[in-house]
Amino acid sequence: MFFLLFFLSVTEVCDRPLVSSLPPSSFRSSSQLSTSHAPGFAKLNRRDGAGGWSPIISDRYQWLEVDLGERTKITAVATQGRYGSSDWLTSYLLMFSDTGHNWRQYRQEDSIGSFPGNSNADSVVHYKLQQPAIARFIRLIPLDWNPNGRIGLRLETYGCPYTSDVVSFDGGSSGLLYWLTSGLKRTSRDVVTLKFKALRNSGTLLQAEGQEGLSLSLELERGKLLLLLRKGRTSSTEPQRLVSLGSLLDDQHWHHVAVERRGSHLNLTVDKHTERVQIPAEFMQKMSCRYYLSLGAVQSEVSQKPVTSKKNFNGCLENLLYNGHNLIELAKNKKQQVTISGNVTFSCAEPVSVAVTFTGPESFLQLPGTTMSSSGGVSIGFQFRTWNKKGLLLSFELPQQGGVAWLYLSEARLQLQIHKSGASLNDGQWHSVELNSRQGRLTITVDKEERDSSQASPSFPVTVENGSQKCRNLFSVFQGCMRLFTVDNQNLDLIKVQEKQLGNYSNLQIDICGIIDRCSPSPCEHGGPCSQSWTVFHCNCSDSGYSGATCHSSVYEQSCEAYKHNGNTSGHFYIDVDGSGPIKPQLVYCNMTEENTWMVIQHNNTELTRLRPFTGVNQYSIHFDYSSEEEQLLAVIKQSEHCEQELSYHCKMSRLLNTPEGSPLSWWFGGPGAGRVQTYWGGAQPGSQQCACGLQGDCVDLQHYCNCDADRMEWTEDSGLLTHKESLPVRSLVLGDIQRPGSEAVYRVGPLQCHGDRNFWNAAFFDKETSYLHFPTFHGELSADISFLFKTMASSGVFLENLGIKDFIRIELSSSTQVVFSFDVGNGPLEVRVESSFPLNDNRWHRVRAERNVKEASLRLDELPVATQEAPADGHFHLQLNSQLFIGGTASRQKGFRGCIRSLQLNGVTLDLEERAKITPGVQPGCPGHCSSYGSLCQNHGRCVERANGFHCDCNLSAYTGVFCQTEVSASFKSGTSVSYTFKEPYEMSRNSSALPSSIYSDMTLRGENVSLSFRTNQSPALLLYVSSYYREYLAVLINKHGEENTSNLFISFFQIDQNAREDFNLTSDGEFNAIKSLVLGRVHESDDLDADLSRLASLGFTGCLSVVHFNTISPLKEALLRPNSSPVIITGPLAQSNCGSAASANSYSAENTHHLSDQSGSVGSGVPLVNSIRIDSALIGGTKLLYLCIFFTGLYL
């Protein structure tokens, strides 16, 4: 069945004066200065008596009360000072009540408690209530007044009569049963509205039951209202909770409930908060014909008698309407479709229980001591409710022992010095406590009426009190409410305490329980659990994927592109496509290549899958479940520049699409939801009913548009990429030609892959201080997050501004080193500042993230510490804006921003700066120049190259590869492996050059060598690198056996191995390495020019791993592995690329370790020249195996 909030159009003007015509007997006050200052003179614009009410003492314990005679709708209040005096209020609290007890404080925005008063004695301050109040009694409590006068007041309230029908239930057998199919017409939209006042914190308000015991009920459970779905009548059937709303609903005040059904959706509203849920289809079917509604006591359909249960509702209902029908009026008139059972009354009598509120550290209540009972003991009882985990509840004397007992909360447990009893007593519920002292033992009973009550009879130490017997608090203060005090089984009258006739008190609110549930509705977003104390709430964001005071801002980036620009390489990452929006984070694989950054989303079958003929099966259907949820998939596709998915079909006698003119034999579903039918294949265009070969005109049978449609006995395939984003992702395949004998097929649907982030690079350039972009008003009433990147050369300017009547929000560059986030939500302007130690006008990208919620505001700049500013505890918290949102400037066109703003997001929604900039003078779409900010990500001599949207690292001059030139290029060498890189021959250079002979070989003449490589091997000795010359000169890097020594005179150089200190050598030869011919890694086949020892070593080759080999600007190993067909390399023997050079592949327990050698020309060091005694120049480099650099020169120099 049914139900949301049903709004009636109100045409009645509800603003007539309510107080001016009342007799003096309708006024009461805490005290009066004299008979001429009596409360009856407190009427607006009247000069009777002393011109208004004034109490005998001006303090915060005074109050003025007005009895309107009946429950009335109150819409406004006006105040005025006492006529002809210096007495007026500057702020006050407003209370309402139906009975003159159990007052309820009126709050603006559920937070602001105080109202602004007057600034003189004569002017009238009128305040319209945001939500009308329904009450008979009004009480005004002064908070502040003219410091040069005293409390003085005249007032008026405005409103209109309020009519209602009321019914009450005793929580036992009383109830009403309505047959909703006999005379009460149902429509496609069902609405139920009511008000309730609960005297017990649990009970069923109403239940709608249909066929087979299927029911929907509204139940009060521990002060919260639940909407439950039951699928049977047995008590063992566990109900399904559809939604929970409200808290502290057992406060004996009226609460509004509305339930509306529209189709299969249902909205539940409690007071001002609404939740929407989906109703199960089976419920709608079984409630469509015959059902009934029970109120109060749950009714049995068979006997139509109430079922007595503690779950029955104890309290009152008011103005119960079903589709406009007044059900209480039907019950009053004893209509046929209504059955009344038990003690049902059509009035709302409620017991008077006076509560007191302990608001802070100075609050206490002192009551008269007990007298010795006949049994020689003490008996005390009370109820309390709180959110705090600790605080002193009670201290009392033990006359027989001559001591004092202290009862207090500690970690939400009740303790008496050394013993604890009860559990979770800081849950905001009422808990009863009874203490009985008899003959040296104390009995404590907690929640006696509850099934899980606790009782303890501990022995306890007696603390003897000396001196003053005043109330002393040795423990944390109690903040909460208490009521129903009894001493020796006698009720204590707290109204007498309020009137100073009994006991003493300080900083108490009497006849009101001022507890507030700051976690209902929860301010914590994205599922973060909310906890609270008396004054603050706390959100636990640890497992939510979000951060901040309310778990609002995502801790994850929104795309793989963003992770790349943080310096990350390929791997699995959580991405949150809408930032602080409702879409959950998802785990994806980011494949970061040199060209693009791919976001890869897997599904349940990305492998090649073989199909054989199925007997009796004409079609085979395959459904694909993705690792991401529906809304995540669609958001990824929408924000990406390009998406694709491989679709392959390998076939043998298994046709695919047949012909474009006929019905397809196979098809697939793609797009949002379950997808739409698609009759084209990978590589073709949507709607074409073709495969890629049909589009290209190269199918194996030109009469068909797919290779598989040729229906051949040989294996063939139709494969390609699906790139039409509106058709992605692939949801399912339907393959229809697999039933014939001999038919075989293999299919594959690859993962969804997308690259490019439209949001991340969306930018605009503001070239004038007066230029700006404007957008619709920003709506961030309760929570707002703003993030963007900027770069500028200006020292100040406003990034963003949005104004309201009084409220505003602004982010600006206030100086070259400071960003300021400022706003006003009605409590006065607040600012959050972040100061940078480096200039921000350096024409580099800087990131700003600002957030404002009901608890605090925060600002983060780049990776600097977050700056925060707490919001006032009881201040305004709705941000109310109404002007356009200005980007890059202000409404007054002052302090505009000059520079670039990029990736601007408000509450997870990206503003399209580029589209707006295309039609705005003074603003240009896009913003080039990213290498100044991201160029440092390119490693190992990689060169940053600008792109329109971003950058990429050119690794051509680096021995590394990868997105940031960070991936080592390694290969495993065998003894017969040889890689030879050939330089240009001399005659080619001379033939193409008109230069002098002496400069023919200048490009091949080296005055310094830069050599770097990594290696891992067990071989010793071994030749790592060999460079030869057309003039029989050579350079060799080799590993010698430990202990062997060979020295020579070398030219200036330095070497570094691994992380060892750099070693400098002063090489005395003054030669040049002329006309280099080739560079060889591994085995050297042409070794005639070498001496015998080196020739023997060269013929052995190298066994092990070589990685990132770099010789000047040449990377021979990289050329051989990645570009063997386009580079001047010759490869002989086995050569396999591997990751053997990476640190991850090195085993710390292995005999092999990877060593890194770098050789770069440098200035002359302090090394001692080495004396060469043979013709091969060599230098000892070091290590457990000795590494040598050998250089041989002939005597010929040009």
UniProtKB/TrEMBL annotation:
Domain EGF-like residues, every copy: 515-552, 928-966
Disulfide bridges in this chain: C900-C927
Laminin G domain mapped to chain residues: 166-348, 354-513, 762-927
Keyword terms of this UniProt record: Disulfide bond, EGF-like domain, Membrane, Repeat, Signal, Transmembrane, Transmembrane helix
Membrane-topology annotation of the record: Single-pass type I membrane protein
InterPro entries: ConA-like_dom_sf, EGF, FA58C, Fibrinogen-like_C, Fibrinogen_a/b/g_C_dom, Galactose-bd-like_sf, Laminin_G, Neurexin-related_CASP
Gene Ontology cellular-component annotations: membrane
Fibrinogen C-terminal domain sequence ranges: 551-603
Subcellular location: Membrane
Signal peptide: 1-21
Domain of life: Eukaryota
F5/8 type C domain boundaries: 14-160
UniProt entry tagged with the keyword Cell membrane: no
Stated family: Belongs to the neurexin family.
UniProt protein name: Contactin associated protein like 3
Organism of this sequence: Astatotilapia calliptera
